Amino acid sequence: MTQAQTNPFPNSDTNKRYYTYDYYLRKTFGGKCAKLPLDVGFTCPNIDGRCGRGGCIYCSDRGSGDFAPEAKLSVAEQIRVQRELFARKWDVSRCIAYFQAHTNTYAPLPVLRTYYEEALAQEGVVGLNIATRADCLPPDVVDYLAALSERTVLTVELGLQTTSDETAARINRGHSFADFCRGYEALRAASKNIQICVHLILGLPGEDDARMLQTVRDVAKLHPDQVKIHLLHVLRGTTLAKLYENGEYQPLDRDRYVRLVADALELLPPDTVIGRLTGDGKADDLLAPLWSRKKTTVINDIDKLLYARNSYQGRFNN
């Protein structure tokens, strides 16, 4: 019997003991989809002064859009460029347009509508992923997103990172957990069709293991459709880089990160899709931890630990 055949986790057809994004795509679209990062030149309310300046301490100038084309290109042109790039490795007949850089609902509704509709009009685009903040969801935008979710597979990705307001202030997040919950609940009430993905970061300054896992427990109670778990990595030119270079921040080591991810998976609902388990920055910009470049190895280690524990996603979710 193989590990896949003896896997006790129901939302899997492989050896993976968690609800992978790949499995979700195959169930939703009948096969894999290329997810194309886009940058349309938005900013963020804790960059432009609405709630702060300088942005989160870990963000690069591209606002998490380091792998997207330049914003000077139209949405249609960015999708064309990205499809050509991705086609070297993957089937790009089905694509998800991923508005990734900065806060992608932080503009007047007519502006948002222009960009989103342009993306949907491109051949092969079967869904939209919109990365934003929960404090940037005014009622007219929420209503439009609800309408969009009737026409396409729509995922709204909400950066939370931590449920600790103390940590949020430390990283210059610019909103509280209560602010996040208000935006989350507005989306949830607007349409059952909107997929809500919550982003979490492990390794934030000042957080011990118990505090990180408390964030996971808090998010599990919200029962999001998807969760992305990120490793905090240090990029050149960021405020976090200065802390790291001054010896004021120490990234997680690999063994600790692997254990924390396995612990987190055990706490999350079994029907929550896991959109990501780790990540890194551009090679030229990454200062630490350098082990994060070996993403496949990290993910394999998580798989091995869950198997050694005879555990799976949702084991301790109740």
Summarize the structure.
This protein has helices at residues 21-29, 75-86, 109-120, 139-148, 165-170, 177-190, 209-222, 239-245, 254-267, 295-309; strands at 34-38, 95-99, 125-132, 153-161, 195-202, 226-231, 234-235, 273-276, 286-288. The chain is of the alpha/beta class. It starts with 20 loop residues before the first helix and ends in a 9-residue tail after the last helix.
Written overview of the protein:
There is one protein chain. The protein has 318 residues and is of the alpha/beta class. The chain has one domain: Alpha-Beta Barrel (TIM Barrel). 36% of the residues lie in helices and 16% in strands. It has ten helices and nine strands. The strands form two sheets. Strands 1-2-3-4-5-6-8 form a seven-stranded parallel beta sheet. A two-stranded antiparallel sheet has the order 7-9. Strand 2, helix 3 and strand 3 form a beta-alpha-beta unit. Helix 7 runs parallel beside helix 9 and helix 9 crosses helix 10. The longest helix is centred in the C-terminal third of the chain and has 15 residues. It is globular.
List keywords for this structure.
single chain; 318 residues; alpha/beta; TIM Barrel; 7-stranded parallel sheet; two-stranded antiparallel sheet; 9 strands; globular
The appropriate CATH architecture is Alpha-Beta Barrel
Gyration radius, to the nearest Å?
19 Å
CATH topology: TIM Barrel
CATH class: Alpha Beta
Helix content: 25-40%
Note the overall shape: globular
Query: Biggest β-sheet, characterized?
Result: 7 strands, parallel
Structural class: alpha/beta
Q: Give the termini distance in whole angstroms.
A: 30 Å
The tally of domains stands at 1
Separate helix tally:
10
Order of helices and strands: HEHEHEHEHHEHEEHHEEH
Mean pLDDT: 94
CATH H level, superfamily name: Aldolase class I
Strand percent estimate = 15-25%
Instruction: Note poorly predicted spans.
Output: none
